[in-house]
Design a protein that fits this description.
alpha/beta, 2 domains, 397 residues, Rossmann fold, globular, HCHO_DH_non_GSH, Formaldehyde dehydrogenase, glutathione-independent, seven-stranded mixed β-sheet, NAD, Quinone Oxidoreductase, Chain A, domain 1, oxidoreductase, zinc ion binding
């Protein structure tokens, strides 16, 4: 049998590269399926959502094979796969979706009803998301392949742009989804909370959508410097000045048209509270600075259970949100996992025809599979990088 290796969560703060089973055309229950394909992984990325699990902030059990941001080459296909061929280079949406249920037919693939027995929505290598094996590995199985996979039209062209195209599996559509749902369009003013990879993807998406000004807020000075390097204004949340005051210094008014939360449930307070974890800090600050009648896109992750939370109520997903403020200002809130298929084709075309440089925006650094534990540690330290794992050495220098 062919060999396989993958990145395995072994306990809070720990990941290891281990020998794992070679994938088979079976579902998480072990049932034979014919609608899937096996992929040789070309690139697979470390995501901030992975870090939540590795930090011990979810109910993930040791032994979980990580990785939901996957790009690969088809090496085997099931008998029911009609429209893909061995040798095709494809992007894998992080959503596992059947393509048959009500929500999939509504393009809400983040909440597929048939791929997870415990709740709506499935994903690769993630806690409570259906048991699908993760793709931070050499090889991986993808089900419902004809529906899920995005085939790149020209393999050679795609490999030339693989650092950009690898972002189509998650963070580029996720950032774009947050910007679209926040109402970003030509001439708008936008505030993006968080200068990590998803935040930078949202900022680049806002620029692609024609925003007049994109402001990024964070506490990490290296990440803020990177945001400025791609043309964003920034606010440093370490400062005692309020977010509204800092926005006024940039725009002349204390509000923006559109706001995007790219931080999620591990948020911290601003200014004097900067070291204290305040899970609702970002949501409350966005309600303060979003204009009346505005919208707030929330691609940042929030969980139903957070065993590592400092606040007792947050352990069960209950946050102290100033909902009355959002109600009074008639805000619209858009939450949930991004339905990647809704956006990935148009974003692929934007990459292929040089309308966006998403790898530059998120500051890609390519590493080997064996370097994955080091990549996790560096990412957790707050470096302004997006780590892309290159398991077979196929990404050109």
């Amino acid at each position: 049998m062919a060999s396989n290796r993958g990145v395995v969560y072994t306990g809070p703060g720990k990941v290891e590269v281990q020998t794992i089973d070679f994938p088979e055309l079976v579902n998480p229950k072990g049932k034979k399926i014919n609608h899937g394909v096996l992929l040789k992984v070309v690139s697979t990325n470390i995501c901030g959502s992975d870090q939540h699990m590795v930090r011990g902030r979810t109910t993930a059990e040791p032994g979980l094979i990580l990785g939901h941001e996957i790009t690969g080459e088809v090496i085997e296909k099931g008998s029911d796969v009609e429209f893909l061929n061995v040798g095709d280079l494809v992007s894998v949406p992080f959503n596992v979706a059947c393509g048959r249920c009500r929500t999939c037919k509504e393009q809400k693939t983040g909440i597929c009803l048939n791929v997870n027995e415990s709740r709506a929505g499935g994903a690769y290598g993630y806690v409570d998301m259906g048991g699908w094996i993760g793709g931070q590995a050499e090889y991986v199985m993808v089900p419902y392949a004809d529906f899920n996979l995005l085939r790149f039209p020209d393999k050679e062209q795609a490999m030339d742009k693989i650092r950009d195209l690898t972002m189509l599996s998650d963070i580029f559509p996720t950032g774009f989804h947050g910007a679209v749902n926040a109402g970003v369009g030509p001439g708008t003013t936008v505030y993006v909370a968080g200068a990590g990879p998803v935040g930078m993807a949202a900022a680049a998406s806002a620029q692609l959508l024609g925003a007049a000004v994109v402001i990024v807020g964070d506490m990490n000075k290296a990440r803020l410097a990177h945001a400025r390097s791609i043309g964003c204004e920034t606010v440093d949340l370490n400062e005692d000045a309020s977010l509204a005051d800092q926005i006024t210094q940039i725009l002349g008014v204390p509000e923006v048209d559109c706001a995007v939360d790219c931080v999620g449930f591990e948020a911290r307070g601003h200014g004097g509270e900067v070291q204290k974890e305040v899970p609702a800090a970002v949501l409350n600050s966005l309600m303060e600075i979003a204009r009346a009648g505005g919208a707030i896109g929330i691609p940042g992750l929030y969980v139903t259970e957070d065993p590592g939370a400092e606040e007792s109520t947050a352990k069960t997903g209950n946050l102290s949100i100033r909902f009355g403020l959002g109600w009074a200002k008639s805000h619209s809130f858009f939450t949930g996992q991004t339905p990647v298929i809704k956006y990935n084709r148009q974003l692929m075309m934007s990459i292929l025809y040089d309308k966006v440089q998403i790898a530059k925006a998120v500051n890609v650094e390519v590493i080997s599979l064996d370097e994955a534990p080091k990549g996790y540690a560096e990412f957790d330290s707050g470096v302004a990088k997006k780590f892309v794992i290159n398991p077979h050495g196929l990404i050109p220098a």
